[in-house]
Specification:
The complex is a heterodimer of chains A (265) and B (377).
Chain A (H helix, E strand, L loop, with lengths): L1 H19 L3 H9 L2 H7 L1 H15 L5 H9 L11 E4 L3 E5 L14 E4 L8 H28 L1 E2 L2 E2 L4 H21 L7 H27 L10 H13 L4 H15 L9
Antiparallel strand pairs in A: 1-2, 2-3, 4-5
Chain B lengths: L9 H14 L11 H17 L19 H12 L5 H17 L2 H12 L5 E4 L15 E5 L2 E12 L6 E7 L11 E7 L5 E6 L8 E12 L3 E2 L5 H12 L2 H21 L7 H26 L8 H22 L3 H4 L3 H9 L9 H12 L6
Parallel strand pairs in B: 1-4
Antiparallel strand pairs in B: 2-3, 3-7, 4-5, 5-8, 6-7
Helix pairs in contact in B: 1-3, 3-7, 4-5, 4-6, 4-7, 7-8, 7-9, 8-9, 9-11, 9-12
Classes of the chains: A mainly alpha (265), B alpha+beta (377).
């Protein structure tokens, strides 16, 4: 119980920090809060919490680079230009100085011509939690709007066409989160691949349904939704898109000749 | 052929069960596809599993069980249904109706009856839906009127699975007057189906199986001590039953869907990479469902009360099941339309996955109202 209270406190602190800081400033703040120790000592708690909160708050930090560095036996926090796989067999660099380029939604990503194969399973899990957080943020915005927005004399949440879209979004998010919540598994790479695919799909589902429910206001720059929609699009491509990973899972079925039952009681 | 009752972990339990199943072949006789053959196999498998103790784990000793956590039942179900020893439909009735009897029947009645069900001496059915009461179950009109120490039942049920094989029925009736709120006006009974006045008529479905029945009740006398719970407890009984339907039963059904997915992989893998996207989508849907259901089994096993959150499991199950059979149709062109195989029957049956056990629309309304707090529709 005491441990849960401590985690709740940590989460509250992190959320506040993320709401006030982003980019290199947030990196610095996370380092002060002990991010490197958290990642090496308790990744199963730290990664879901930090990345989900990045999604929920719409903030960003280069902590993904650390997750990949740590998984490949490198030092956390190293200022290295590490090519990360992106959709379409391409590569991107996450600029740790925060320099933004042409990437959608303000993430400091730029294309890189060459890369080399790296271990991505842990990074996929991290991005998947980020996508789940973004999806939840969109669902919260759209649900609140559906209750507040009155048309034809009642909240639009009362119309089944609207509420079913939001229900569908929650189903996609909960399904994705379930794939991220398996205990230690025999096939971590395949489990991470499927989780990233499920989370990307959930975030794109959330983007589509929540955009529709939010109607005109959700299409404006001033409304928060657009930031999450753009983040979801970019993160879906990072370390392999939902579409590509799903196809890859299909190829694995052919090679194996059967479907692995990854979830066991 | 007694089961080893000595296990420290669920993994050991499963290993012992698997070893027992390897030694005691319960595979159905080949070439037997009729519903009668399925039923015979169902009873035969249950008897062997009960005699060896496997069917008794996870049920309380007061009802003839051997105790242990609910999750043991999910493991037995997964192995039995996943190996094709029994079909998910008949097998699922055990996990739905046994908890209902244990929670609502008089203890002596539960102790007398439950072993008959678990050991394959009898099958039971669930008389809930009516021609006029599908999604709106609380509007049901089958009436029970008290007459001394018995109740007289009149009305009609429909979609009653396997009623033609059933000895008894867990029946929902209306006992309240017009001023009683719907949810307090319903009372459940445990009715012998050989009682005078009961007529069972199998209903031919679009997939050519007589699984569902219409059941008519004409002045059927039911002893008062066959009431499940108190007058007015019927709605609560129905709601309490749903989480069982959506936990252990779903786990068995998922095991079955995975076994059919393996069969599909074997059929189509030589096609090459053209199938990868469709197969990957199906795998992802099944995997999400299985992960979600795993978490639900553990919550049930930890004694948590399952509620509207199981509507998510139901939506995921229906979606994955239809996706699997849509993919089968897409990747095996002509097989469903031109050849008489199990794929055809199963494809057609999967069309009902978004209808039975609470329609997809009702589930989405529950999710919107109870999980997203979006108010009434």
């Amino acid at each position: 119980m005491a441990q849960n209270d401590e985690l709740d406190l940590l989460e509250d602190g992190l959320r506040k920090t993320m709401l006030s800081k982003s980019g290199p400033e947030l990196d610095a703040a996370l380092n002060d809060l002990g991010w490197a120790e958290m990642l090496s000592d308790m990744p199963d708690v730290a990664v879901p919490m930090i990345f989900r909160l990045l999604g929920e708050t719409g903030s960003h930090a280069s902590v993904l680079v650390d997750v990949v560095l740590h998984a490949t036996g490198n030092e956390i926090g190293t200022d290295v230009e590490l090519p990360l796989p992106y959709a379409g067999n391409t590569w991107v660099i996450w600029d740790r100085t925060g320099k933004t380029g042409t990437a959608l939604g303000g993430l400091p990503l730029r294309r890189e011509d060459d890369g080399y194969p790296i271990r991505v399973a842990e990074g996929r899990v991290a991005v998947a939690w980020w996508l789940v957080g973004s999806a939840r943020a969109m669902l919260t915005l759209a649900s609140r709007h559906a209750l507040d927005r009155i048309q034809f004399g009642k909240p639009i949440a009362g119309f089944q066409a609207v509420r079913h879209r939001l229900a569908e979004t929650l189903v996609a998010i909960e399904g994705a989160e379930a794939t991220l919540s398996l205990p230690d598994v025999d096939s971590p790479d395949l489990t991470a691949l499927l989780a990233k695919a499920a989370a990307g799909k959930a975030a794109l589902t959330a983007a589509r349904h929540c955009q529709q429910v939010l109607g005109g206001i959700g299409f404006t720059e001033e409304h928060e939704l657009q930031r999450h929609v753009k983040r979801a699009l970019v993160l879906d491509g990072l370390l392999g898109s939902s579409r590509e990973l799903t196809r890859k899972a299909g190829a694995g079925l052919r090679a194996r000749g059967s479907a692995a039952r990854l979830a066991q009681l | 052929m007694t089961a080893a009752a000595d296990f420290a972990t669920t993994a050991e339990f499963r290993a012992q069960l698997v070893a027992w199943l390897d030694e005691n072949d319960l595979t159905p006789p080949p070439g037997e596809h009729s519903l009668d053959a399925h039923q015979a196999q169902h009873l035969r498998a249950l008897k062997a599993l009960y005699d060896a103790g496997w069917m008794r784990y996870g049920w309380p000793e007061s009802a003839g069980g051997l105790g242990g956590p609910d999750i043991l039942r999910a493991i037995v179900g997964e192995e039995i249904v996943g190996r094709g020893i029994d079909h998910p439909g008949p097998y699922s009735m055990l996990d739905v109706l046994t908890p209902t009897m244990i929670d609502y029947a008089r203890p002596e009645l539960a102790a007398e009856m439950v072993p008959k069900l678990l050991s394959g001496q009898e099958s039971w059915c669930q008389g809930f839906s009516e021609p006029g009461s599908g999604s709106d179950l609380a509007s049901l009109t089958t009436r029970a009127v008290q007459d001394g120490d018995k109740w007289i039942v009149n009305g009609q049920k429909v979609w009653t699975s396997f009623a033609q094989y059933a000895t008894r029925c867990v029946l929902l009736t209306r006992t309240g007057g017009p001023d009683t709120p719907n949810h307090e006006a319903i009372t459940a009974f445990f009715v012998d189906l050989d009682s005078p006045g009961v007529t069972v008529r199998p209903l031919r479905t679009m997939h050519d199986v007589d699984e569902f029945c219409e059941v008519y009740f004409d002045d059927v006398e039911v002893p008062a001590d066959r009431m499940l719970g108190q007058p007015g407890d019927g709605w609560k009984l129905a709601m309490d039953l749903l989480p069982y339907e959506r936990s252990t039963c779903f786990w068995q059904r998922i095991a079955y869907l995975y076994s059919r997915f393996d069969a599909l992989i074997a059929e189509v893998k030589s096609v090459g990479q053209a199938i990868d996207s469709d197969m990957g989508e199906t795998y992802l849907a099944l995997h999400m469902l299985r992960c979600r259901s795993r978490a639900t089994q553990h919550r049930l096993g930890d004694g948590q009360k399952l509620g509207p959150d199981t509507s998510i499991d139901k939506v995921l199950l229906a979606g994955a099941e239809q996706r699997l059979y849509d993919t089968a149709r897409d990747l095996m062109p002509g097989v469903i339309e031109l050849d008489d195989t199990a794929w055809r029957t199963e494809y057609l049956y999967s069309r009902a996955a978004t209808i039975y056990g609470g329609t997809a629309e009702v589930q989405r309304n529950i999710i919107a109202r109870r999980l997203l707090d979006l108010g009434k529709e």
